[in-house]
Each structure stands twice: as C-alpha cells, then as structure tokens.
Amino acid sequence: RQKSSSVICSSRRDYVPNYIQDPNYVRIFDTTLRDGEQSPGATMTPKQKLNIARKLAELGVDIIEVGFPASNKADLDTVKSIAYEVGNETKDENAHVPVMCALARCTKEDIDKAWECLKDAKFPRLHVFLATSDIHMEYKLRMSKEEVIDKARSMVAYARSLGFTDIQCCAEDAGRSEKEFLYEFLGEVIKAGATTLNIPDTVGFNLPREFGQLIADVRANTPGIEDVIISVHCHNDLGLATANTLEGVYAGARQLEVTINGIGERAGNASLEEAVMTIKSKRELLGGLYTGINTRHIFETSKMVEEYTGMQVQPHKAIIGANAFAHESGIHQDGLLKNRSTYEIMSPEDIGLYRANESGLILGKLSGRHALKSRLSEIGYKINKTELDDLFWRFKSLAETKKVITDDDLIALMSHPVI
Length: 419
Ligand code: KIV
Ligand code: ZN
What we know:
This protein is an alpha/beta fold. The chain has helices spanning 46-59, 73-86, 108-118, 134-141, 145-162, 179-192, 208-221, 241-250, 272-281, 298-309, 330-338, 369-378, 385-401, 407-415, and strands at residues 27-30, 63-67, 99-105, 124-131, 167-172, 196-201, 229-234, 255-258. Strand 3, helix 3 and strand 4 form a beta-alpha-beta unit. Helix 2 (73-86) runs parallel beside helix 3. The longest helix has 18 residues, at 145-162. One of its GO terms (molecular function) is 2-isopropylmalate synthase activity. It holds the Pfam family HMGL-like.
C-alpha cells in the first residue's frame, strides 16, 4: 500500500491520504480496542493495547478507534500514549500511519478529552455519537428530536473549533431510527462539519436487505452526503453482522467498522477477517472494491487478540478458527490431494497461516487411504499397497478411540507392522 503521508488538501478531506480517494477503496476502521474491549471480560492492559495497535498498523487498518477517553482515566492515558506511539511517523519512513480515533459523547467535556489525547497524532479523528431512534431518544436521552439535532450540530461545530478536521458523527441505533428524521439529522451534522457518517445497527436487529436499503436511502435522501464517507457499524445479535456490513458496502458505504475475531458488546461486532477476506475473494462481483489490509497478518493478529482478551475463538469460526482449513472426511481429503481448490476457497497462506504439515489434512476416523498414504510419505514412509491395506485398518481402529491421529501415532503404527 502507499504510505499515508501523501495528503490531499481539500476543504473537507484534508486528512485523507490520496489512495483512499479511489471510489473503490473500502476503508477499514478497527474498533477492537474500543467496542471490542466492551465485550464482557475482555479488558486488556495498556501494554497489551499498545501491542495490538502496533499490530493493527502493520495489518494496514486505515483507522484505529483507540478508546473512549472520557469513560475513565486509564482509557484516557492509553489513548494518549497509543496516539503518540502509533499515530506518528516513525524512523521507518515507509511505515503506514493509521488515523487515530477516539469516541466521545456529544458533550464538550468528552470532546475536550478526545482532543487532549489526539491533538499530536498525525491524523486525529473524533467519533462523536448521539442516538436517533425514538426508543433511545425517549427512554435513554429524554430529548426531543429538535434537541438531538441541535446538540449534535453544536458539538460537531465545537469539535471543529478545537482543531478537529476529521469528524465522524454517529447516529446511534440508526438501524431502528425513523428514516426522515435520520436524513435530517445527518444533513445537519454534515453542514456543521462532519466528514464521515457512521450508520450503525447498534442492536444487530436489521436483515441484510433492510440494512442495505437503509444505506441506499441515506445516500439518496441526505443533503450533502456526496461530500462525506458513509461508514457501517454492525452488531451480531442475530449472527448477521458481517452480512449486513457487506450489504452496506454494496449500497455505497466506503468504511467498515469491525473488530478482530468479531469481539464486541453482547454477540460482538462484524469481524475484520470475514469482511476483508470476503471483499478480497469476491472483488470482481463487488465491482472491483478492495481494502488496504495486508491479509498475511490476519492470523497473527487474531492470535494476539485471543491471547490478550482470553476470548477463545470457536474452532469452526470462519477464516481464523482452528478448523477453518482442516479437512477430515475421506472424500474431501481425496479431492484436496488432487487439487486444493476442490474444497478450499482461499489459501491459508493468504491469512498468514502456515500448515503444520504440507497437506493440511487432519487424520481421524473419517479419513481415507489416500490421505493416510500422503501423510506417511510426508513424514518419510514409502509403503506398498499390501502394507497400506494392513495399516489402514489398524489406523481406523485407533481413530475410533481418539479424535486426531498424530504423526507420533503413525510412527507407532509403522513400528508394529502385522505383516
Ligand atoms: O454500536 C454502536 O452504535 C456504537 C456507537 C457508540 C458507535 O458502538
Ligand atoms: Zn457498537
């Protein structure tokens, strides 16, 4: 990717590196350190967060949401130190410098704290939010529609007066908001100086087609929308976060808010690895869209987040689960040995996963002779058909007693031939 120091200075987007002016470029906004850390039990130490931020920069994310400085003093200190350490040019002049973003409610105190943390970063961004759904305005905010618009407009203007030029404004619970009101809210914050609009499905309640339609409607009806970037932020309460995110892109969003391993509030957020690998795998069908992610860092980043948060990735999790590239059934193993694309839609090396054995096959009770012979040959045994027939049945009886047959098991079987 091109490094982000080449900046286009237009009135609005003076912070935007020029490679992302391409209409097909999809920005990746990673919120592992903010929404991800809001997963129950996922708290990380400041040092761990710094390590993750460095890894996210290496992964090539465009924007890192480093935290919510007004939520507590520890978060404020961490955001400040990450913005300084990761959000500035280093000695390596080719290193990618991501935008540093902090979350704030629509209050001067929150915005002041965000500015205090970010002002020395190379590309500082404020992410300010206010709810726009009837249910949130009535029960949580106890504010009228006019008050909500007034507050958002004045706080965006206040942020500009402090020095923020990159301002993301979020209509919290947009997925359940009344559309006419949403267009008005968004149009007003654009006039006040917002440069990115975040349209979240805060409670993960939208269907993909419903969410795609929402983004299309926002694009068609919001005054001034052509001057800003639309961002989507989807939660996974119905298991639809990634699907909704991709529908959002299809409808014109050019920023995706995601987390590593999909961690986040309740059932989590859309996962970075799923969204990015889908865009990469389906680039043609998606009209040439692409991201700046160096996908070969995905696996390592996922492992780091898993270790630090203690939130274990389920084995069958798409892209990064332990079984995502494991094949046990005999028919599948036979197909793979003939041509990997029979049962693999991407290669594990694309996400930086290097197989423990060349074939990548898991030997177990469903495996066939072909896979057994292939693994034996990888570990140095050349056997003829009679030997294979004998070994295969002993292998099958052993596999009835344990889940996975290891190389040591094979060596033990080979050292006790029956014939
Ligand atoms: O889910 C959500 O709406 C959020 C916003 C506060 C950005 O996380
Ligand atoms: Zn969220």
